[in-house]
Amino acid sequence: MREDEPLESWLFRVENNKQYPPTPRDLELNRTALSQFNDALAAQPEGRLNYSGLPIHTLGRYSSATLIGDQIDHAQQLFLQVWRRGGTRANYAMDVLLDSIALAMDVGSVPFWKQLLDLSRPRDQSTTRRRTYALAALALLAIVVGDEQAHQSLAEALTHPHEQVRALAAPYIAETYRRSVHPLPPAIQAALTDIARNDRAFVARFQARKALRQLGAPVPIDSPNLIYLLKVQLRSDQATRTIAIPADHTLADLHYAIQHAFDWDADHLYSFYLTNNRAEKHYAIHCPELDENWDFTVWSITGVDMRAVPTSDESNTPVTDLDLALEDEGLDEGGEIYTTNTRIGALGLVNKHSFMYFFDYG
Description:
mainly alpha, Leucine-rich Repeat Variant, 2 domains, two-stranded parallel sheet, about 10% strand, globular
C-alpha cells in the first residue's frame, strides 16, 4: 500500500469535497469502475492475478467522487476477493478499494473495519497497512461524522490481543480527541495509561505514552532511580560496550555516551530507531538538527554535555512525570519529540528490547 498513514489525506479530501462536490457523472463513473473491475476479476482463472491492467484507476482518494449506497458493500466484497486471491499489484488494488470505502464515511462500514483488524494469514505482507487503514477509517468516522460506534471500536482496539493493533490504535485515538470538542473520556485515558505502564510489548507502551503526551495527559514514566544497562554492538564488528544510563537522562545523553565509549567524535547527524527498523518512521526519534526549521551550528552537534551516572548512595532530585517525560526547553510548539527532549525513562523500554542507533549520515 502506498502510504503509511492515510488519515491526513482523507481529511483533506473531505474538506475539498465540501467546496467541489462530486457531479452525477462522477458518481456514475464510480459505479462503472466497480462493475468493470468485478467483471474483470470474474473472468480471470483462479489463482494469483496481475492487477496492473484491471480497471480500477478511477477509484480511490484521487477520484472526484465517493461511493454511495450498495457501491460500498460491493467494494468491500471486491476487497476481500483481492485479499484472498493475491497477485501482482494486489496491494495497490486493495489500497484503492480501502481508500474508496473509507471516504464514503458510511457508519455501516464499522463491522468491515473491525474485521480487517483480525484478517491475517501466514506470510501476509499487507497486514500492517490493512490494520492501519482500518483504524484510520474508524478515526475518520469518529472525527468527521462523530459516530459513537467508531469511537467505541477505537477504544476496543486498545485491548486487542495483538500488540500491533494496540500500538496502532493509540495514535488514532490521540488524533481523534485532539480534534474533538469533547474531553478525553476517563476510561480511555485509564486504558492508555495501563498500556503505557503495564503492556508487555514495547510498541504498545511507546505509542500509548506518546498519545497521552499529545493529549496533555500525565505520562507514566520509569523511576528516575532506575539505571539501564545497554549493550551496544557495532554491526560490522563483534566489539561491544555496556553503558549504564539513568532513566532521567535523554537520548542525546545516550548518543554522547556511545560516542565516548567508542572514542568517536560526535560531529555527524544521528537518530534512534526504537524498533530496530528504519522503515518504521513512527518509532524514529531524530536529533533536532534534522528538522529543517531548527537553527543549528556545528557546535550544537558536537557539544558534549554528558552528566555523570549517579552512584547508589547519591540522592536524586524529585522529578514529576511530565518533567521526566520531556525536557521543557527542548519541546517545540508543535510538540515534536527529539533526542534532546526525550528521556530514556519515558520510552517504555522492556527487558531485552533491541533498538538501533544510526550515526554519521546526512
